[in-house]
Design goal:
279 residues; mainly beta; 8-stranded antiparallel beta sheet; 19 strands; elongated; Copper amine oxidase-like N-terminal domain-containing protein; signal
Length: 279
């Protein structure tokens, strides 16, 4: 009931903002016909206590607006097409402020560097509904990675969070393995004299994110003199088998000159329906 009261109050304000004028009978409780530019609106308008009420969601949709209702923050955002076009809003009318609110309200940490937030809307599981993929760039090797999924009540819920610093927000093109669509997200981590890239393969299933495999694809180690090294790696998936190879090169202290011959190793992992297991 509280939601209806708030929505009704906002609907009255919306009528004034969009320029619809009505002259309702005083103290009449009945449906009202409302037109815009000579066309009758389908939304149900009512007059009560000298004021005009209408369901905010249906009215906004009929007028081409988007309404986002955030129960956690007790907030309703009305987004117009012009606002969506270039003011930090996604294709589905989702704003950066909304994504920020979801992270603050649902995230694991007490504080986030939300100034470094970016996000995209991507249909990750092929159900026609876009998930929200978000990342926070907190500086060198610092960051967070989030995925939000829309539930049956049209609310976005945090289904995945990890302290990954990512260079690219959008996951790589999916690879079909069994009945799963695997995405790749590359994490950048390390510290003083250490730079590491880790490939994470994951998929969505029943509203959850499941990591199928991860492997270091690059490691530059220049922490201790006389022990510098560079490891580069790659992988390929064929017939539900993941082939992973790594090449280790020992380096001089200039971090460029290779000592001796590089050494390459290879491992294979078999997909068991959930994740890749060492063969």
């Amino acid at each position: 009931m509280q939601y209806k009261d708030k929505a009704r109050s906002l609907a009255v304000a919306a009528l004034l903002v969009i320029g619809i004028t009505v002259t309702p009978p005083v103290e009449a409780d009945h449906p009202l016909i409302v037109t815009l530019d000579g066309q009758q609106l389908k939304s149900r308008f009512e007059v009560a206590d000298g004021e005009v009420y209408a369901p905010l969601l249906s009215l906004a949709k009929e007028l081409g607006y988007t309404v986002n209702w955030n129960k956690q923050s007790d907030r309703i955002d009305i987004v117009t097409d012009s606002e969506r076009a270039g003011n930090g809003r996604g294709d589905d009318g989702i704003t950066k402020q909304q994504v920020t609110d979801w992270i603050v309200e649902q995230g694991k940490e007490d504080n986030y560097y939300v100034e470094g937030l970016s996000y995209e809307l991507i249909d990750l599981d092929g159900d026609g509904e876009a998930e929200v993929v978000a990342a926070i760039d907190g500086g060198v090797h610092l960051g967070h990675y989030f995925i939000f999924n829309r539930d049956a009540e049209e609310n976005y819920r945090l289904i995945f969070e990890s302290p990954w610093k990512v260079e690219t927000l959008k996951p790589g093109s999916p690879v079909q393995v069994g009945d799963k669509l695997l995405y790749e997200t590359v994490e950048r981590t390390g510290g003083t004299g250490l730079d590491v890239e880790i490939a994470h393969l994951w998929y969505m299933e029943e509203g959850r994110v499941i990591e199928a495999w991860k492997g270091i694809t690059m490691e530059m180690n220049a922490m201790i003199p006389d022990s510098y090294s560079l490891t580069v790696a790659g992988y390929h998936i064929q017939d539900d088998v993941l082939y992973f190879w790594r090449t280790l090169s020992l380096l001089e202290d200039d971090a460029e000159t290779i000592q001796g011959a590089p050494a390459t190793t290879m491992n294979t992992f078999v997909f068991d329906g959930v994740s890749f297991q060492a063969k």
